[in-house]
Amino acid sequence: MLHLLRRLWLVLLLGLAPAHAQPADQPAITTPTKATPALWRATGPAGAIYLFGTIHLLPPALAWRTPAYEQALTTSNRLMLELDERNLNPAVLQPTILRLGLLPEDRSLRDELGDELYNQLSDAGAQVGVPEVTLRRMRPWLAAVSLSAIAATRMGLNPEAGVDRAILTQANALGLPVEGLETADEQFVHLSRLDGDAGRALVKQTVDDLRDARTLFDRLLVAWASGDPVLLERNWWTGQPKNRRSSTRNC
């Protein structure tokens, strides 16, 4: 699940997870009692920048703002986020995502994955309340992200409680200019390229992660909340597919 958190956050924000998934009992995330996430300051001739790693989905009860974070934000003159949520328009993006995320009528997800992996994915979907018929025409990337998104919500994770949303709200109140490093279109186009072997690898990793999704996210959340870069790096790589280890991104 960890390698999909960035994308499933966007799916949840846009309301793209399958709407008719049936309720199912899922254990809640074990929320740390205290969060002191790491903050880096880099300086140069042009001034200083602060680097603050975020988690897009969090349990609502977690308090993570520290004096160092507050000082960094209130003394900055610009905020750069991975994605500026203010530019998200589900009505505009949904047709694009469906175009990129659905297979032609003469193809099925079973054709793309093969019987064994498709059956594993279908079983994983049943565990989070997604009927098999919902998956049939999805491309591998959309099926993987959708199931991960639903599993995240069942564990009590919420994009409304995520760090990005909170920082953006606070920056708007301070009147800070905000820019996004990527657009939603760019993120979904990147995902749409995960076909063939890459798509099958993504689905296989997702099926494996969903078997122990709570433990994986608990581990990452505790590492992020600790502010320990060594612990965070160690737990970020846990569960990462090998072909994704060439770059690290926000979760």
Question: Helices and strands in order, then pairings?
Answer:
Layout: H1 5-13, E1 39-44, E2 47-52, H2 67-74, E3 79-83, H3 90-101, H4 109-113, H5 115-127, H6 132-135, H7 140-154, H8 163-174, E4 178-182, H9 184-192, H10 196-210, H11 213-226, H12 229-237
Parallel strand pairs: 3-4
Antiparallel strand pairs: 1-2
Helix pairs in contact: 1-7, 3-9, 5-10, 7-10, 11-12
Organism: Hankyongella ginsenosidimutans
Protein name: TraB/GumN family protein
Keywords: Signal
Please give a structural write-up.
With 251 residues, this protein is mainly alpha-helical. It has one domain. Helices cover 50% and strands 9% of the residues. The strands form two sheets. Strands 1-2 form a two-stranded antiparallel ribbon. The protein has a two-stranded parallel ribbon with strand order 3-4. Helix 1 (5-13) packs across helix 7 (140-154) and helix 11 packs antiparallel against helix 12 (229-237). InterPro entries: TraB/PrgY/GumN_fam (IPR002816), YbaP-like (IPR047111).
